[in-house]
Design a protein that fits this description.
- The protein has 269 residues and is of the alpha/beta class.
- The longest helix is centred in the last third of the chain and has 44 residues.
- The strands form two sheets. Strands 2-1-3-4-5 form a five-stranded parallel sheet, with helices on both faces. The chain has a four-stranded antiparallel sheet with strand order 7-6-8-9, with no helix packed on it.
- Helices cover 53% and strands 16% of the residues.
Length: 269
Amino acid sequence: QSHKIKIPFMPKNIGVLTSNTGAVIRDIINVSTRRNPNVHIRLLPVPVQGQGAAEKIVEAIQRMNEENLADVIILARGGGSLEDLWPFNEEMVARAIYASKLPIISAVGHETDFTIADFVADLRAPTPSAAAELAVPNIKEVEEKIKTLENRQKLALKKQLELKSLRFQKCMASKVYKDPYGNINEKYMLLDKYFKQLVTGLQNKVKDEKTKMVEQIAKLDALSPLKTLARGYSIITKQEHMVKSVKQLEKGDNITLTLADGKVPAIVK
């Protein structure tokens, strides 16, 4: 089954390998024309029984492939005895069918007849008329199916348009379209509010920091040695080192007195 070639859905050319006389070709033409009058039947007459029939069938299959004469091939003959059908049991015919690049429908004998060609072919038909039905789709059924699909497509498109229209109307009725600047104004007012809050917060922060700074300055001023000097005290230094005890001084030492309004050199007596 993995070697079977799919029969094309809408073939334009049907290649028929059978006798050019008899009911087989007439049945195939009648059925094919009834189902699709636009299909083209290309007949390569071959002997379907007797000596040399197998060779002629092989040549016809090869010619159909080499010249690409059809989209699908129908290999057919009417009923008969086992001897009459024997060309379709020949190995060379089986190998030619297997090697064919064009799909082949086998319609050999009656429904109860089986040949090796039936098993090698891509599709077996019980009769030549059935082979024509399998190869040629009914154009009226195809047209009806196309119309059904067109109607379904139109309904689906109409439904999509209705849904899109409703969505469009909903969008147009929204606040964004009715008052496009409303949202911008709201955001602007909110931004202005946040800006004022930020400015107020910064001003309060600066005010608080100024208050803290004044307090710190007052504390530093209270601890400043200049305040102490203003009350009449002085600072004694000897060689730029502060003198904190009389033990650091000796008679004749040069010292400096720092007062509130200046410095005075002195000598320890």
